[in-house]
Amino acid sequence: MAFPNVLIIIAHDLGRHLGCYGVPTVQSPNIDALAADGVKFTNAYCVAPQCSPSRAALFTGRYPHQNGVMGLCHALFAWDLYPEERHLAAILNGAGYLTALAGVQHETTRPKEMGWQEILPVRVVDGRPQCARAADAAAAYLRGRAAKEEPFYLQVGFFEPHRAPGTPGEFGTMPADRQKGVTVPPFLVDDAGAEEELAHYQGAVRAMDAAVGTILAALAEDRARNENTIVVFTTDHGIPFPRAKCSVYDPGLQICLLLRWHANGIHGGQAIPAMIPNIDLLPSLLELAGVSRPRDAPPVAGRSFAPLLTGKPYAPRAEIYGGMTYHDYYDPLRCIRTDRWKLIVSFCYNLSLMDPSQEWRPRTITKTPPDPSRARHDLVELYDLQADPRETRNLASDPAHAAVRTDLLRRLRAFMEETNDPLLKGVPPSPMHRMALDALQHA
C-alpha cells in the first residue's frame, strides 16, 4: 500500500476553546465537523505551555530540554533545534514525501534544513487575517498535487487566534463574536474586561475555523486523495490568558487534537479519553503511515498511540510530564500529572504567573491568585484534580498527602534524570547569554 498523505493544521494559542470540546459560544463548525468525522482526543496535553518549545516537541517527539528548544525561536530569543534533531518533515522527506509548509512555523530558524522542500508564499493582503491567506496557499498546493504520484506532507500554521497587540480588541482585524454569547473560562474573573477580550478571541477562533474549512474543502475535491490523507488538527498550548498560556496548570497544557484517515477506518466521531502528550504524535503518525525513523536520529521520548486507532492492545500512560524553562524570561517549572494528581516544582522564586497578555495593563484577571502581581511560586505544589480540578488548593504541605508528594517527586526526578534535564545541573544559559559573552569577548 502506498504511503498516505499527511496534512497537519496547527493553530496558535487555541487550547480546547472550541465547540467540539464543549465551549457553547465559540463558532467552529468546520473543526467541529472534523471532530465528528474523525477521532477526538479528550485528554491531550502539550509538554510545554508556550509556542516554540511545544511545537519543537510535537514535531520531533522529544522534550524541549532534549531537542534544544527551551525557549522561543524568533528574534534574540534565538533557541533552535540541535543539528542532530529530525523534524517530521525531514523524516517524511527522506521516505519519499513531497514536503511543504504554509504559514507559521515556530520551532526552528532553519526550515529548509528541517526538511521542507517548499515554503509556500503567503501573500500579505491588508484586512485579511493570516489564517485565511495561509489557507489559500495550502488549498492551491493541494489542487496542484492532483497529478503527483508521490505522497505529500503539508504542514499549515495559523497565527490566529494568537494575540495581535495594536489591533482592535488585540486579536487582529476580525470582528468580535458575541453572536452566541461569550464564554469566560472558570479560572478567570467574569467581568467586563474578560467579556470584551473573550469576545474578540472568539472572533479570531471563528476566522481560523473558516480557514480550516477552506483547506478541507480543497482536499475533498479529489476523493481518492481525501480518503488516503491523514488529517491532523491541533494547537501548541493553552489559551492566551493568565493561568493558561505560560503556566503548567491544566489550562496551559490542555490542547485539542483531532485525527482522521478514512482509508484506514479512522473516522466516525470517536472520542478517546486516554492521556496523550503531544510528543506522542510523531511516533504515532510514523507507525500509521508505515514510515521508519532514520537510524541516526535521536531516540524519541514519545510513544505511539496508533494502537488506540487500529484496535490493537495499548497500555495507557500512568503519568505525563510538562515544563517550562524560558519564555519572556527564565521561569523554570517541571510537573507530573496523573489521572488524579498534579505536582509542580518551581526552580526560581518568580511571580506565580507569567503574563501572556502582551499588554502593560491586562484586562483579564485570575480568581487564583486574586493579585498575580504579588503572588510568587511555591517550591512544590500538589493538587487533587478530582476534588480540585481548577488547581486552587495546594496540598503539598498537608501531612495527609505526604506519601503522594514523595512518590510524585521521586517519579519527576527519575524522569528528569532519564531525559537528561539540564535543570538538574543548574541554570541552562540562553542563546542571548552566549551572544552577550561573544560580544564582550570581541569588543
Helix content: 25-40%
What is the name of the CATH architecture of the largest domain?
A: 3-Layer(aba) Sandwich
Tally of discrete structural domains: 2
Total strand segments: 15
CATH H-level superfamily of the largest domain:
Alkaline Phosphatase, subunit A
Provide a count of the helices: 12
Tell me which oligomeric state these chains represent. Answer: single chain
> What is the H/E string?
EHEEHHHEEHEHHEHEEEEHHEEEEHH
Q: Which fold name is given in CATH as the topology of the largest domain?
A: Alkaline Phosphatase, subunit A
- Strand fraction equals 15-25%
Low-confidence stretches: none
* Shape summary: globular
Side-by-side strand order of the widest sheet: 5-4-6-1-7-9-2-10
Task: Please compute the radius of gyration using only Cα atoms.
Answer: 21 Å
CATH top level class name of the largest domain:
Alpha Beta
Task: Give the helix/strand class.
Answer: alpha/beta
Through-space gap between termini: 60 Å
Average pLDDT number: 96
- How is the main sheet built? 8 strands, mixed
Provide an overview of this structure.
With 443 residues, this protein is of the alpha/beta class. The protein has two domains: 5-310, 3-Layer(aba) Sandwich (Alkaline Phosphatase, subunit A); 320-434, Arylsulfatase, C-terminal domain, CATH 3.30.1120.10. The protein is built from twelve helices and 15 strands. The strands form three sheets. An eight-stranded mixed sheet has the order 5-4-6-1-7-9-2-10, with helices on both faces. The chain has a four-stranded antiparallel sheet with strand order 12-13-14-15, with helices on one face. Strands 8-3-11 form a three-stranded mixed sheet. β12 (320-326) and β13 form a beta hairpin. α5 packs parallel to α6. The longest helix is centred in the middle third of the chain and has 29 residues, at 192-220.
